[in-house]
Amino acid sequence: MTRYMSASDSLRQKIAVDSACVIKMDEKVDKTNKDLDRPVVKLWFVDISDFGRTSQFLLLSSAIFVAYLIYGYLQELIFRLKEFRPFGWYLTLVQFLCYLIFGLLEMYVRKNFTRKIPLKTYALLAFLTVATMGLSNTSVGYLNYPTQVIFKCCKLIPVMVGSILIQGRRYNCLDVSAMLSMVIGLILFTLADSSVSPNFNTYGVILISLALCADGAIGNVQEKAMKQHEASNTEIVFYSYGIGFFYILVGLVISGNFFPAFEFCRQHPVQTYGYGLLFSISGYIGVAFVLSLVKASGALIAVTVTTCRKAVTIVLSFLFFSKPFTFQYVWSGLLVVIGIYLNVYSKNRTSMDQVMLDTFTRMQTCFRSKRTSYRNTLTEV
């Protein structure tokens, strides 16, 4: 009898141990599945995937602000050298060389040198990238910097006009309202700039407008190439800026602007090459931070953060560099911001409505609880 009881007890113990092992294995599997579902989020090379969502957002947003505020400050500072204003393309050449080296180093660190996108596609991407950044950099020499930033906020305009003319696409009232708000804001901002700024030049407006058109096209080409060939951001940066570097170099040599720019930069190495290197580093890191924020919090949050960053850039430009100011800048800038958020709302109406509803519900609940607490206090008194 004792023998049977001990056998029964040992069987129960074995079943209990097996059950515990199964539970632990299930917990490990669940944890592994959660880890697989969670996106890998990096602050440059630092993995912050284990941080909470709020911590990720605060870290990445702060990093974006720091990187791009340095980028904007240095870009305007470089063009404070009046003799450097005709050499915007040379600054772009230096920037492309830096991005090429950074991309190569990042590919080496990640041990990934495979090219997935055809060179023909990269030739087009490089041309659009050169047009976007080269024309944008050159325009700073002919425009008030806040005006250049406002123009760069309005990429939606050429995208919508191009898709209407080329694809025959139709847009809803919100999208049309967003574009009209941006157009009116741009016109008013430009008129304000032309009336008070001694540096205003119509040539600068033409340059930044062409840069805007190229910027509107480059996103579609990049997105299509990445989806078709599943290429990494590092690969696209390396080949786009590498081919673009040779485009600019050939253009500068043929036009005869390379050697005058080289000679001027040789005479002012700190203000040109020194600031240009820091300018390139901050821009390259800023792009990586924005992509990480998109992965961690979504495109809507990323657009909000980058728009706020541009607004702060404009304010700091007036604080750090003396320039004439008029309140028409404020009203026209607000029209552009309204246009941006109408566009974002049009694309994310359901999620934004839900966020606003949740916020209103929380505020209402908080107000009711405080009112109830206040009434109870009065009753006790």
Automatic annotation (TrEMBL):
PANTHER family noted in UniProt: ADENOSINE 3'-PHOSPHO 5'-PHOSPHOSULFATE TRANSPORTER 2, SOLUTE CARRIER FAMILY 35 MEMBER B
Family note: Belongs to the nucleotide-sugar transporter family. SLC35B subfamily.
Keyword terms of this UniProt record: Membrane, Transmembrane, Transmembrane helix, Transport
Localization of this protein: Membrane
A cellular-component GO term for this protein: endoplasmic reticulum membrane
Membrane topology per record: Multi-pass membrane protein
Domain of life: Eukaryota
UniProt keyword annotation of Transmembrane helix present: yes
Record carries keyword Transmembrane: yes
InterPro entries recorded: SCL35B1-4/HUT1
Annotated source species: Magallana gigas (Pacific oyster)
Pfam name, any one: UAA
Transmembrane regions: 57-75, 87-109, 121-143, 149-166, 173-192, 198-218, 238-261, 273-293, 300-321, 327-346
GO molecular function, one term: 3'-phosphoadenosine 5'-phosphosulfate transmembrane transporter activity
UniProt name for this protein: Adenosine 3'-phospho 5'-phosphosulfate transporter 2
